Amino acid sequence: MSTERAGERDTGTQRQVSAATLRRLERGTGGLASASVSEMEQRLPWFRRLPADQRASVLLVTQTGANNFVAWLQDPTEAIRLTAEAFRTAPRDLSRWVSLRQTLELVRVAIDVFERQLPELAAEVPDRTLLTESILRYTREISFAAATSYAAAAEARGAWDARLEALVVDGIVRGDAEESLLSRAAALGWEPSSEATALVGNAPSDDPPTIIYQVRSRAARLGCPVLLGVQGTRLVVVFGGPGDARTNDEAAKRLSEAFDEGPVVVGPTVPSLAEAHRSAGDAMSALRAVVAWPTAPRPVPSGDLLPERALAGDPEAERQLVERIVLPLVDAGGALMETVDTYLEVGGVLENCARQLYVHPNTVRYRLRRVAELTGHTPSNARDAHVLRVGLAVGRLAKSRGLW
C-alpha cells in the first residue's frame, strides 16, 4: 500500500492522512451528508416538521461541510474560509427559520454521524485515529462559523431595524399617514394601543450605536418601549406606556439623561402612536423656543413653554393659551379677567390692585384664587404671572381677529 500522505509538508506538524483515505472520503461525503440528515429527522422532532425545501437546504449545508472537511484535511490553514463557506452556500433566510440553538443541535447530530462513520473510510489503520482527531477540530470550527453566521445575520437585521426605526420617527415628526406609520412600527414590535410621548433634545455623540445603547439601556430599566432617531444634531425619542402622569414624568427624566447638554423638551402624552405627531410637533416647537427661557427645567414639558412658543409665532401655542387661560376666565365671569389683568399691571401689589378696582383686598384674594383654580397658574408666582400676561395678550389679539 502506498505510503504517500496527502498534503505532506516539512513543517514538523502532525502527519496527514493518506491519499487513498482522501479518495475514499471524497467518494463518501454524499453518504455522510445523507446519513446525517436522516438521523436529524429521527432525533429532532422540529426538524421533521420543516418543509422539504428547508430540509434540502440543511442537506446542502451538510454536504458542503463534508466536502470542505476533505479539503481542510489537505490544508488545515484554510479552516476559517472553508467553514464559513459552508454557511455562505445556505439560503439567505436560513437563520430566520432555524434558530442558533437549533443549528447547534443539527451540528451536534452531524458530528455524531461523522465520528461514527468517518473512521470506517480510513484506508490505513493509523488514519482512523487521525480522522477522529481531525473531525473534532473541524467541528469546533464549524460551531464557531455557525455562531459567526448568526451574528452577521443579527447585525444585518439590527441595521435594517435601525433604518426602519429612523423612518418611523421621521414619519412621526413629519406627520405621515397613520397606516404606513403603524405598519412600520408594528414590524419593530411597537404595541399600537400603547400611549406615546415625544422627547427631543441634543444628540450626545456622533456615534449612532452609542446613542442607541444609552437610550435603550435606560428604557429597558424603566420597562417602556422606545423608538428613536437621530436627525443631525437632534435626538428624537418616542417612549410608550401605558402609565400615569407620575410614571411618564419619571420615564422622561430618566431618558433625558441620555441626551447631550442643553434643553430637553417633553411633548404631551397621546393615546396612541397614530397621534404621536402631535406630541412631537409640540416638542419640536418648544425646543425652538426654549432659548427664551434660560432657567427652564430639564426636561421641560412643551406645555410649560406656551408663552415662548406663542412669541415665536406658533399658532398651536396661541390656540392653547386662549383655551387654557382666556376662555376659562371669560366663561367664569365675575370680573376675573379684569382682576388678574389689573393685578399684573400694578406689579402684583394686592392693595394697589384693590384700590384700582374699588373693591376690598379680600375680594381680590378670592378672585386670584379662582384664577389659579381655573387656569392652573398662580398670579403671585413670577413664572405663572408671565404665562398669564402673555396668554391675556394673545387672547386680545385673537379676539381682534374674530377667532373667539
UniProtKB/TrEMBL annotation:
Residues 1-21 are annotated as: Disordered. The keyword Cell division does not apply. Residues 175-289 form the CdaR GGDEF-like domain. Gene3D superfamilies: PucR C-terminal helix-turn-helix domain. One of its GO terms (molecular function) is DNA binding. Keywords: DNA-binding. It comes from the Bacteria. Residues 1-12 have a biased composition (Basic and acidic residues). InterPro entries: CdaR-like_regulators, CdaR_GGDEF, PucR_C-HTH_dom, PucR_C-HTH_sf. Residues 336-393 form the PucR C-terminal helix-turn-helix domain. Belongs to the CdaR family. This is DNA-binding PucR family transcriptional regulator.
